[in-house]
Amino acid sequence: MRIVVIGAGVLGVTTAWYLARDGHAVTVVDRDPMPGQQTSYANGGLLHASHAEPWNAPGVIWQLLRWIGREDSPLLLRPGQIPRLTGWGLGFLRNSSRHRFERNTSVNAALAVHSLQLLRQLRRDTGIRYDDGQNGILKVFHETAALDKARHASKLMAPLGVRHSVLDARQTVALEPSLGEAEDQLTGGIYYPDDESGDAHLFTQRLATLAAAEGVTFRYGVDVRGLRREGGRITCVETDAGDMEADGFVIAAGNDSKRLAAAHGIRLPIYPVKGYSVTLPLAGWSNPPTIPLIDDARKVVVTVLGDRIRLAGTAEFAGYDTSLQTRRADTVLRQAAGLYPSLGEHAAQHTPEYWTGLRPMTVDGPPVLGPSPLSNLFLNTGPGHLGWTFACGCSRVVADVINGETPAIGLDGLGLQRFQRW
């Protein structure tokens, strides 16, 4: 079958890889000059089933209200976005009930565990490397109540294959000695041994090279204007470089997925949530962690990727604004330095690389996968903060659906039809 995949981010490229390996003739089209240039470019680098909770946890509304307009907050709602968030925002809050939050956490965790299994298989099959690490992930806490809450969430995910160990402060530092300079801040930690880390951008680029060797055609620098429809089918992708005909089509276009689908009456409840990262050279820092870290209170990630340090964090409801606000990036660096004072000294000796990207987030948390109301149009979009973690799992599910096969994990809670319930 001839298939066009719209989007050359990590989801689009992994979709193309699996479809090509299944025998399809695949073309990937993207407006950027190379793969992985948007949300996949400089994210936190974590591959973590352990962090499968959607961001609309019970009580999130009070956090949002407390942090409206505060530039130094980890979760920022810009006042000008409030009118634009009415529909999506109500759905986001509706899904913050305890029952829905726990259900969606379970859906995410099952997909994440499956996805990491597929990634390991892909690594074995191809030998692909991407500054990857298999040291697990350590989440640290500053308050007993926060640690207890995370312990409860981890217990919910344990039956799905998310192993974890709860540690006190002394045990946390024994596992990750670099935290010695912050031991007096810590209440404890939770270690997730099966989580991993890696550079999503490097992975996307190298997998694109492997996919091209499998026969995938990449059309970069091509702007997708829309999809042409005849009856209940799509016949071609309309681009600024001409029409692209095929037998099947996959929308894996991140935040642009909503526009492409809406033109054909398909409602995708997706909203872009902005995040920031800071990248520094590793050389010269005397006290880097050996295990990727998440600071629960500061909402910041510290990851070593090859010869670089990646710091990431913040969630900002700012619409489709992709401008880089230095103040927000500075907040990420400052929060990381709060955990690692020596990191602040190290950063002062270098010029940090700041980056911002938009995470395409659904109202309930899980991505939107599988069939659409149009018989030959398929969806792989809306992974939110877990796009890198979900990439192989989402793409294998979509490839299975296109092949007419039953995916290894069910589509309940992942398909478009779930939004008919609210």
From TrEMBL:
What's the domain of life for this entry? Bacteria
Domain FAD dependent oxidoreductase positions: 2-400
Give the residue spans that cross the bilayer. none
What cellular-component terms does GO give this entry?
A: cytoplasm; plasma membrane
Q: Which residues form the signal peptide?
A: none
| Keyword Oxidoreductase part of the UniProt annotation | yes
Keyword annotations for this protein, in alphabetical order, are: Oxidoreductase
Question: Pfam family of this protein, just one?
Answer: DAO
The protein's GO terms of the molecular function aspect are: D-amino-acid dehydrogenase activity
Keyword NAD appears in the UniProt entry: no
Give the similarity note. Answer: Belongs to the DadA oxidoreductase family.
Query: Under what name is this protein listed?
Result: D-amino-acid dehydrogenase
Could you read off the lineage of the organism from its UniProt record? Bacteria, Pseudomonadati, Pseudomonadota, Gammaproteobacteria, Chromatiales
